[in-house]
Each structure stands twice: as structure tokens, then as C-alpha cells.
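User: Please predict the structure of the protein below. I'd like the answer in C-alpha cell form so I can feed it into my own downstream comparison script.

Assistant: Understood. Taking the following sequence of 286 residues as input:
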Amino acid sequence: MSPSSIPEDADERRSVKPVICYPTETLPKADVALYQSAFEGAEKVDEVIVPPRDAAAIEVPAGHLLRIVCPEGPQVGDLNLFNSTNLDERFYSGKTRALHGSHVSIGDQLWSSFPHMRPMATVIEDSLAWYGIDEFGGSVHDVIGTRCDPYTARILGGEDYHYCCHSNLTRALSRARNLPLKEAEGHIHDVLNVFMCTGFTRDTGQYFMKASPVRAGDYLGLFAEIDLLAVQSACPGGDCSAEHSSDVAACYPLLMEVYKPVAGRLVGWQSPPVNAYDGSHGCNAC
């Protein structure tokens, strides 16, 4: 049979119903109502502006709120999260996607890398939650894209571009932790694409982006389950309506704010421990 031959039972094979890979009924659920109530009237204790085509970092203590705000024009951001005291524990977009779906919103959690694998943050605010999934299969706040980077830009365009999100995040982490640039780059990882509107084309399965629905005043709020270092890039593509590595796209700043919970409103909450897996990998004698 040639590779292009269609088998007689092709339709039958295609019609098999899908099964969810990771049923989440037993996944511990965050107390979103408790978290939200803790920040009604909360005090802002820190903030940083993320300049256009650049990145910035901010510390978010466990039990605090990181609110990412679009203060001016439509702008998307690429977010990296780290355990503030251990850069080896970082946001794991792939596992977050497998557990919660291609895009995140209120109630979804952002998980950390192996072997720690625990919730780093919980989404408790989302002014774009109304968007849902559009007619093209697009939605906002994706965990499917990687981040625009100078290596892919070089392959596709033949030139070096230094203000891709990967490079912006590298510079910001280098500054935040006083690391050599090459060492900092090794810690940069796949991102939460804040405010970005993306999906996959139905005909070719290609990753697409479209103009973000974000407007001035929109925000995404993350409850810090552990002590976090948040590093965010204001993408050089602006609202990503046309391209994402550009010196001509209209770009605007982003704002990262940190809020302290109101005293006495997080009763019963504890920062999650690292994953309880024993780490033996079936080799007890190793």
C-alpha cells in the first residue's frame, strides 16, 4: 500500500471519539472565592512599568496578587514565572496546557516544572474572560505559543533582531538576578502569552495570532501560590495583529502591580508543597 492510499476503514478510524488525556476531577481546586475576597480593598505594595519592546521583573511574595495591566493601547505580554529563591523551578506551560487547556482564565492554575510540579499561581482576575472562543478557534492568554525569539527570526528573515520577547526576558532576568547574559538565557522558558489572541487553523493546524481584544484598563490577576519572580516582556508585535517581531508595529507599555492581601482574609490557605512523587523512577537500587 502506498503512503498516500486511503484505507477502507478511514472514516471509521476518524470517527473514534476523543478522550481527555488528563481528567481533572481529582485535581485539587483552588479556593478562588477566598482569594478574590482577600484582595477587595487590598493595598498595592509595588509596581513596575514594562517598556515597549523590553521586559521588566518584579518580586511577588506568596499570598500576594500579581495584576498585569494594559494601561495605554492594545499590547500583549510574554510572562515567565520563577520560584523566587530557586530559578530551577519555573513555569511549565506544556503541563499547564495539558491540565487546563490551550488558554487559561479564572480558576486555572499555572504549574511549575519537574520535579517540583505544583501550582505556582492561580488566575483569579480576568477582564477578558468574556471573550471565550471565537469563530476561528481563537482565545486569549495562551499557553501554546513559545515566545518570539531571535533564532527563529534569523532562520525566517535572515537578519538578527534583538528585541524579541526571548531576548527581552533574557536581559530582564540578567538584571534582576545579576547573572551573565548567557546564564540568564538558559533559564528563559515557554511563556504565558498574556492578552494574546491565538489558536490553530482548522485546515493546516498552524499556530495563528490575531489582533488582541485587549484595551486600556484590561487586566489579568494571578494569586501567587509560592514566592515568585515574575519577568514580563511587552511584545514587539504590539497587539500581534500582523507580526510579532517588528520595529514598526504600534507598541505600548504594560504594568505589573503587586497587592498585599487584607489581613485575616486568607485564613486556612497554605503555600503548596513540592510534588510528593518519590523520585525513584522505578529504580530503587540506583
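That's the full C-alpha cell string. Residues 102 and 212 are 16 Å apart (CA to CA).
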